[in-house]
C-alpha cells in the first residue's frame, strides 16, 4: 500500500443519474462509498444540450430511486432547466458523498485485491468499482472536417445552443438521429435555411390511436424486455434511437414534411472535399426504412389492441407527403450559402484510463447486467445494459438496485 492511500469499500466513477442512483441504494444499505465526478452532477444536461432541449420520453417515466416525477404534467416533457432541477432535487434528497471536479485518471488492479483508483492527487483502494461515466465521451467529427475552409463554422451537436450562435447563412446538419432531427427543427423554427444529411436512423410517431406511443409500449411490457430476450440480443446496443420530439407538447418529426416546407434533404454524407459534399444515393431508402419502422410499431400496437379487446380510435395509414426526385447531386457548400456545419453523428466511448481486463478486442466493455468477469468491477447507465431504460431516467434505478445487491450480497428491492 502506498503512502497516503485511502481505503473504501466502493468507488463510483461518474456523478450523473446512474452514479447517483447507485449511491442512493448504497446509502440506504449503509455501505460506505464515494462518487468521483469529473465535472458536476448536471454537467451533461447543463453544458451539452441546446437551449430548447427537452425529453422525448414523458415525465412519468422519470423514476430515479426515491425521487419519481411529482409535477403537474406527467404526460408532458421536461425542458432543459426542468431536467436540471429534477437532477439537482435528486441530489438534495439524500446528500450523496459526491466529489465534483475530481476526474479519475487511472484504475488498475490492486496487489492486495480490489482496485487502485487515482482521482486528482488522491489514491484509493476499493474492493468494488462501479463505472457510471456513460458511453458518450468523445464527440465524433470526421477527419476530413479539418480540411474544410475555416470560413465555414463547424461544431458538434453537444456544443450547439441556438440559431443565434451560428453566422448568418444556411446550415448543413449531418446526421438524422434524435439530436440531428431536433436541431433541424430548432433551426427551421428560427427560419434558417437548412440542409440535412439523412442517415439510417428510424422514426416513431409521438401519438397513435389516442395515446402517446410510449404509453402503449409500456402497457405492452416493452420496457421490461431484457437485452437477453431482444431479437437483436447485444446488437440492440448499437441501434440508433428513433427520432421524435417532446417539444411544445410532443409531436412527430417527419423529415418529409420538413422537405415539403423547404429543408433540403440529402443522403448519407460520404465526404466533403474542396467544400463540395458528396452523398450516398440512399435518401429514399433511408426515408422509407424510417417510415417502415414507424409502421411496424403501429402494427404491433394494433395487434395488442385487438388481442386485449380494447377500445381505441382508429387512424388512417400514413401517406408520405414528399418524395425525393432520385437525384444525387453533390452540394457546393459556398454556392448554397452554407456558412455552418453541425455534426450530429454521435460519440465514442473512451476507457483508456481503465487498466482492468473487462474489454473485448474492440475495446468495448463486456458484462452481463453490468457485472464483469473482474470480481467487484461493474458498469452502470449504459444503453441496453439490461433493458431499454438502462441509460435513462426510467430504468437506471432497477439496474442500480441489482448491482447494489451484488455488492451487499443480499436482495435490494427496487425503489
UniProtKB/TrEMBL annotation:
The keyword Oxidoreductase applies. Keywords: Oxidoreductase. Gene3D superfamilies: FAD/NAD(P)-binding domain. Coiled coil: none annotated. GO terms for molecular function: flavin adenine dinucleotide binding; monooxygenase activity. InterPro entries: Auxin_biosynth/cation_transpt, CHP04046_FMN-dependent, FAD/NAD-bd_sf. It comes from the Bacteria. The keyword Oxidoreductase applies. This is FAD-dependent oxidoreductase. It comes from Acetobacter orleanensis.
Amino acid at each position: 500500500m502506498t503512502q497516503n492511500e485511502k481505503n473504501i469499500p466502493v468507488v463510483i466513477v461518474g456523478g450523473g443519474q446512474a452514479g447517483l442512483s447507485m449511491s442512493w441504494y448504497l446509502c440506504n444499505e449503509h455501505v460506505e462509498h464515494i462518487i468521483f465526478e469529473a465535472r458536476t452532477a448536471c454537467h451533461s444536461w447543463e453544458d451539452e444540450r441546446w437551449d430548447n432541449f427537452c425529453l422525448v420520453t414523458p415525465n412519468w417515466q422519470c423514476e430515479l430511486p426515491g425521487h419519481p416525477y411529482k409535477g403537474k404534467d406527467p404526460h408532458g416533457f421536461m425542458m432543459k432547466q426542468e431536467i436540471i432541477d429534477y437532477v439537482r432535487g435528486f441530489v438534495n434528497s439524500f446528500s450523496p458523498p459526491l466529489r465534483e471536479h475530481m476526474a479519475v485518471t487511472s484504475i488498475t488492479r490492486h496487489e492486495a485485491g480490489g482496485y487502485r483508483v487515482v482521482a486528482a492527487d488522491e489514491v484509493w483502494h476499493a474492493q468494488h468499482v462501479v463505472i457510471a461515466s456513460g458511453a458518450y465521451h468523445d464527440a465524433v467529427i470526421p477527419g476530413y472536417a479539418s480540411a474544410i475552409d475555416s470560413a465555414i463554422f463547424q461544431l458538434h451537436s453537444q456544443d450547439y445552443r441556438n440559431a443565434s450562435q451560428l453566422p448568418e447563412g444556411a446550415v448543413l446538419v449531418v446526421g438524422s438521429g434524435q439530436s440531428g432531427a431536433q436541431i433541424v427543427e430548432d433551426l427551421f423554427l428560427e427560419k434558417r435555411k437548412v440542409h440535412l444529411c439523412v442517415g439510417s436512423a428510424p422514426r416513431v410517431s409521438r401519438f397513435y390511436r389516442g395515446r402517446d406511443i410510449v404509453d402503449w409500449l409500456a402497457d405492452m411490457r416493452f420496457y421490461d424486455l431484457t437485452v437477453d430476450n431482444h431479437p437483436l440480443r447485444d446488437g440492440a446496443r448499437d441501434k440508433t434511437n428513433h427520432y421524435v420530439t417532446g417539444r411544445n407538447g410532443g409531436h412527430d418529426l417527419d423529415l418529409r414534411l420538413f422537405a415539403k416546407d423547404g429543408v433540403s434533404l440529402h443522403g448519407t454524407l460520404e465526404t466533403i472535399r474542396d467544400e463540395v459534399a458528396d452523398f450516398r444515393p440512399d435518401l429514399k431508402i433511408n426515408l422509407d426504412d424510417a417510415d417502415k419502422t414507424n409502421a411496424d410499431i403501429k402494427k404491433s400496437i394494433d395487434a395488442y389492441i385487438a388481442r386485449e379487446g380494447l377500445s381505441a380510435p382508429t387512424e388512417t395509414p400514413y401517406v408520405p407527403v414528399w418524395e425525393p426526385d432520385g437525384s444525387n447531386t453533390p452540394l457546393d457548400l459556398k454556392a448554397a450559402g452554407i456558412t455552418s456545419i453541425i455534426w450530429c453523428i454521435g460519440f465514442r466511448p473512451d476507457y483508456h484510463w481503465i487498466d482492468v481486463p473487462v474489454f473485448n478486442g474492440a475495446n468495448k466493455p463486456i458484462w452481463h447486467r453490468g457485472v464483469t468477469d473482474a470480481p467487484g468491477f461493474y458498469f452502470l447507465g449504459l444503453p441496453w445494459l439490461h433493458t431499454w431504460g438502462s441509460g435513462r431516467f426510467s430504468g437506471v434505478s432497477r439496474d442500480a438496485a441489482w448491482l447494489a445487491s451484488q455488492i451487499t450480497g443480499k436482495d435490494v428491492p427496487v425503489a
